[in-house]
Amino acid sequence: MTHDFLTIHQLIALPYHNRNRDDRHAPKTLVEGGVTRGVLSSQSQKRAARIRYEELAAATGSVRSRHLAGRIADRAEQIAGDAPFDRAAADATARTLIAKLTKNTASAETAQAAKDKAARAAHERKAPKDGDVDAYMAEFDRAAEDKRIAAEVKAGDRDSDTAIWISDEEVEIAAAAIARGDRPETEDVFAGATGSLAIAAFGRMFANQPDVATEAAVAVSPAVTTHPISIGFDTFTAIDDLASRGAAHWSQASHTTGVYYRTQTIDRKQLRRSWTGADGDRTREQLEQFVRALIETVPQGRKNGSAAETRPAVILAEQQAYRFGYQFETPVAALPTGGYLEPSVNALFEQATQARDYDPDAIGAAFISGVQAGLAPDLPGAGKGGIRHLTEFIVDWALA
Length: 400
Description:
Oligomer: single chain
């Protein structure tokens, strides 16, 4: 059986932290198995991994924003150098290019024009019979124009109501075309495959251009504690150095602790379809950097207010015929002396053993790692070692 998927199972113990906040600024939670668990969303994990990878790897970077037209036009102006350059035209071309990815601008403009025409006709029908109709309609037109300008001001310089994710490579392609005076179409700049490993890994969609969207090659689960948690509150103050008494500020911060289970699954075939760098000179180096970032980063919320920078305690990487993970629907119980990590490791590897009994052909080679890998029991045929050996195991499989 072919094993074109590889799932990385991780158990990571985070001390005092609030790395992923909800709308009340408290640690995110959910109820599973009848108890409240801590959560680190998949989105927050992917952003942390992407930022770490692009900081470490001198590779094609990316940017996610609602303000991309200015970045493209700035780069076009740099490329143009001393040649004649119409900045206003460049801004307009870049805005049109970006807008086409998320909204059907032609249809929207047509619909708005029809709506404006109907509103004007309805207002004209209400014109007083014995009054100055032209003046009456001129007043309506001025009010409509003021409303249009107010809407543009409210929108600011946003190119889209949603953040769009593009690679530095795509910025260069678009900017070069605009610097030449061209008006590039979306298909001239974007394609399903991309030179950005981060975009290829996590995928992206364009609401109005699904044909140039990028399918994700890596699936990331939320990280969920294997046990119940409680939310703690820390009262803090800021002291005014020039005041003789009292505090300048008083408030509370929320935090929690816990052992989190999370998975990341790599689809080897999709990675080659989504990433144009899959056969480049620096493919292995980039994959090694990306895998380490994926494994070793956690969300960065309130990172300077806690020391929650622990490494994964136990990691199990499995080659799989199809994607699957394990579950902690029944919360683990702490040891009599305290601690959830060891019971969590035992529960994870008990499920790994059961999975092999259930369908041994679905699981290929495996590798065990982590700063406390000694807690993990042996699995038949599974290797064991540090992060370098784990990374080699994963990258060798990805490039096979």
